[in-house]
């Protein structure tokens, strides 16, 4: 049989020992008699067989000359090391091995009769190209760094794959070109450098069998199972979406089995939820938790004994149980309650285990659980092997945790928009369930989020007369634009005397009279349409004809390019509203930071013509058994005080606003707890139930309500109105008012009034009291609203 059969290669392979025999020829001339004699003996054994020098490809010769080849290779395969070294003699890119150490033979024998030795990471389609790169080095001197580590994967007696790294010694090789070989130019070399994957190009430059390889290579082989296991763990952890891959956990188990040399080993994980001090299951295909058993989540104190709890969670150190049955029996004989981690392992049939903390500088993130069905297989000694791999586990968990947080945030943003921090935990919990269902292939839906028995607080600082102010601004802008257009049209009529000019002037006068006498809702639309359809085409005509060109240019300079209308007074109004909303919202947000530190609660605000805010406080939001009515009372007092501060801040800023507008503040008191739920379609919280809807009705209508028997609105500039329905609310807020009077937040003119009945709502009353103001932050004097206005105008 010829070793080149069924092989496509640029080289014809021949086994030969010429270079090694030349080495012995030099040793034969040595002054060292022992060395010289040994070299001569080797040369003498090879002398009758010239094919050992010239090379051969017939495998029969390997059998026929086995004795002589053994003598030639004796120094390379020292008998004293044969049971220790893993070494072979072979030809490159071929599975032919014609000499090997006893240790190598033993490894192959243990692997079994059906085992086939193959280089693991050398694809067949790359062998030809790699052979070409060898030729480039040997024959043309291009020192390409083509070397990469090659491995054998060989099972041991327990069926565990072990990894062996192959290092080649090519000192005894020769490569010569035949007449089929093509000369490789510098240009060819450059072309090949950029075309490693172009198989046909390499075959063109290095035709099959165009070179002859003569010699052999010595493979020094090393057991690198632990290093390769660590590398494989890194590779397994790097990939995306591993938890969805069915093969991931099987490969992970195999890697750990190789690392620890335990065939029945399994690896599980549990997540540490620091916020709730519980362990939770990792959701993914085939991923188990042997600490949780059949539980989805369990309190840490219920899953670990006190010592192991401190060891894992406080100290972030691993611990092992080398014989689960023995420890369990000790508890049984002593009639003691078994340690939870021992009991859960015993019930699952595991005999030994290691629990390793997955922790970084910020603390514990999870636990890696390694278990075996064999007593003493896992222990505190081989647990030290985890030291080298834990950094990669930690890194992967950190990345996975961040990815999950990002995914949770993405789901929350998609399903719910921005969520207040106080209720974020509830959305995160539902998002986790969403991810779990998705990973398990179940139909996914984001379930209803609701909080029961929460107390509402509502307040607003509203801009008084905003509609009237906007109408005035609109009227003034339209009047200015009509007058500007009338001036141009009057000049045009004087120049040309066309009746159409006179008709447009009449129309402008009619619009102007309407603005002065009776401004209607649709007046703005009618006038804007008149300008767009009639006036502007005419002005463009006058400009193009050169008539009144400068007048038309002056007119358009006054027109806002974005809205295509004269936008002076309306712009001042809009900028004033925007500044009021921005400043008031900013102040309220800053104050909210302090309030959240007093006691966590839900908060949201809205910018309208002013700023409204909703707050909800209760046990279901804080998820801790800490809520007390005192926190509700505290927030009510805080709200009233902040509304006074916002009033003060507004009037101190008012002189800086383009339009002088007034504000009025109102608080709505609702003393019954209610349920709020998140409306997925509208992306915000709303009250649940028919009874609770009464609260929303009052919120929407109460600021427009009148005092009973009058046409006076309940909200009034310079005053805070506190709307309520129960006597106990009245008493509570009167005490707050009295307290804030003592701090000079409020005046002494307290009044209690009844409100006219609203639709479906009766019996509302209100406490009204004037706010005391400061002229600026450094002013120590106290002013009523009227006094303040006089001071600001002085």
Q: Helix count?
A: 27
Strand percentage: 15-25%
Q: Which shape, going by the Cα principal axes?
A: elongated
Kindly, what is the distance between the CA atoms of the first and last residues, rounded to a whole number of angstroms?
A: 116 Å
Beta strands, count:
23
Helix fraction bin: 40-55%
The unreliable regions are none
Give an overview in words.
Strand 13 and strand 14 form a beta hairpin. The longest helix is centred in the middle third of the chain and has 31 residues. Helix 10 runs antiparallel to helix 11, helix 18 runs parallel beside helix 20 and helix 19 packs antiparallel against helix 20. The protein is α+β, with helices and mostly antiparallel strands. Strands 15, 16, 17, 18, 19, 20, 21, 22 and 23 form a nine-stranded mixed β-sheet that branches. It has a six-stranded antiparallel β-sheet with strand order 11-10-9-14-13-12.
List descriptors.
46% helix; single chain; 27 helices; alpha+beta; nine-stranded mixed sheet; 794 residues
Q: What is this structure, in a nutshell?
A:
The protein is an alpha+beta fold. It is 46% helix and 19% strand.
Layout: helices, strands, pairs:
Blueprint: E1 11-15, H1 18-28, H2 33-46, H3 51-54, H4 59-64, H5 66-72, E2 86-90, E3 97-100, H6 102-111, H7 124-140, E4 150-155, E5 161-169, E6 173-177, H8 186-193, H9 199-205, E7 211-215, E8 217-223, H10 225-238, H11 246-260, E9 266-273, E10 278-281, E11 297-299, H12 300-303, H13 306-314, E12 319-321, H14 324-333, H15 340-348, E13 352-360, E14 363-372, H16 390-416, H17 421-439, E15 450-464, H18 466-496, H19 499-517, H20 523-544, H21 549-557, H22 569-598, E16 602-608, E17 610-617, H23 619-622, H24 629-653, E18 662-669, E19 674-679, E20 684-687, H25 690-701, E21 719-724, H26 727-742, E22 751-754, E23 765-770, H27 785-793
Parallel strand pairs: 1-7, 18-21
Antiparallel strand pairs: 2-3, 2-8, 4-5, 5-8, 6-7, 9-10, 9-14, 10-11, 12-13, 13-14, 15-17, 15-18, 15-19, 16-17, 19-20, 21-23, 22-23
Helix pairs in contact: 1-2, 2-5, 10-11, 14-15, 16-17, 18-19, 18-20, 18-22, 19-20, 20-21, 22-24
